[in-house]
C-alpha cells in the first residue's frame, strides 16, 4: 500500500468534510483531492520523474499539505525544508538530497536569489504570485493540465516517500531515506494508538517539516481535519483547543511546559482533547505528571528518531495516569511500551544483549527502520550493525516492555570516573520553581576530566546559583550535581524544539 492509497480512502469517505484549516480559510477533502491532483500533473509538466525529489520552503499553512499530497500522488519524494535553518544549511541539504523542484512561500521570496546562486539547477515555484520565482502557483498548475488526471503513483514499499535531515544536535545533519514501508508502519501504530473517531481534529503548531507534520499527515490520511498555526503561541493554542474542539496536538517538551504555564495562568476548556502527544526530547517526569492531570489525563508520549520515526515506543494516557496515581516512578519515567512494528534490545558497547533493567544503548529493528543515510554508506554501516539500528540513545528496557531513555550517548558526561546522564540532571533542575529551562553539558576539567555545567534560563531574575546547586545535590548527590551554573536568557534550539547542544557548547566555549 502506498501513502496516496490512504488519502484516496479519505477522499472517498469524507469528500465534504473539512480537510485543512488555516488563517486563510478551509478546504474540504474533495478540494484537497482536486488540488493535489493538479499538483501531481504540474510536477509531470516540469518533468519530475518517479522518485524525483521535491522540497517546500514555507511556514505552516494548508497549501503545504496540498503540495505534499500532490508529491505523493505523483510518486515523487518529499524533501522537508526547515525554514528556521540557516540558508547555507538548507542549500547544503538540498544539494546533497538532489532536490530538483522547490515550492517557495512568499514569506521566503527574499531567499530566492541565494537559492539560485547556490543551486542553479533548481526550479523554483511560488506558492502564490510569481515574484522572483520561475513560476507562479497558477501558472504551475496550468502547466500540467494536458497530462492525464489522477496520475497514478507507481512503486514498491521500498521506494522512498521522504528524504529528511536529522536534527543535527550532535553534528552535521545526515539525510535519511524513508521508504514507503516506514509510512505503512507509522500508519499501523497511529490507527491503534491515536484518536481516529468521527470527531477527531488535529492542530499543527510545531513546524510541519518535522514530526508534527508527519503526525498530521497520518491523521489527514485517516480523514481528520487539520488546523494550522504558523508557529507556537501557548495562548493561541489553548484558545484553539477550546474554540475548535481540537482532539489531538503534538508538541515538544519545551512547548508543553509553556502550555502548562499558560493554562495555569488563564484556564481554558480543553475537554475535547484526547491526545496531547509529547515527543522529540526527554520530558521532566514532574512536569509530565503536572500536565497530564491539568489536561484531563489526555497526555501521551512516544519515542523515535528520524532513522526510526515517531513510534518505537508509545505511552498511552492511561499508562501515564496509572503512573501518577500509583506513584510508579519507573512507569512515569518511561517513554512507553515498544510498539508492534519494531523489536528493541539493549546492548553494551561490544554488541552484547543486556538483561531487563540494565542500562545500555537502545537498538531497534523492524519495518519502522529507515533504509539508511543518503550518499553516506560509512555512516549507514556505523548506525546499522548486525541487523540492528544503533540509536545512540542510552536506555533501559523493563520486563513489562516499557522503555526508559536515560540520555544520548554523546551527552553522557564522565566526571571523576562516574557516568552522569545530562538528561537526569536537567530533569532535577526543572523541578525547581525558579528554573524555566535547563541544559547540562560536560566541560573539560583538569581535576574531574569533565565537570558538570548547567546552563539555566531562570524565572523572574532568579540568580542564586549556590541554592540551585544545593537543591540538585538533594536528589543527585555531589558527583552528579552541577559544579557550575551559567545563567542565560535562552537556549539555542533546533527547528523541532530540542536544545541544540552543538550550538550551546560553541556558545559556551566548549
TrEMBL record:
Protein name: AMP-binding protein
GO MF assignments: ligase activity, forming carbon-sulfur bonds
Lineage: Bacteria, Bacillati, Actinomycetota, Actinomycetes, Micrococcales
InterPro entries (alphabetical): AMP-bd_C, AMP-bd_C_sf, AMP-binding_CS, AMP-dep_synth/lig_dom, ANL_N_sf, ATP-dep_AMP-bd_enzyme
Domain AMP-dependent synthetase/ligase: 7-374
Domain named AMP-binding enzyme C-terminal: residues: 424-498
Highest rank taxon of the organism: Bacteria
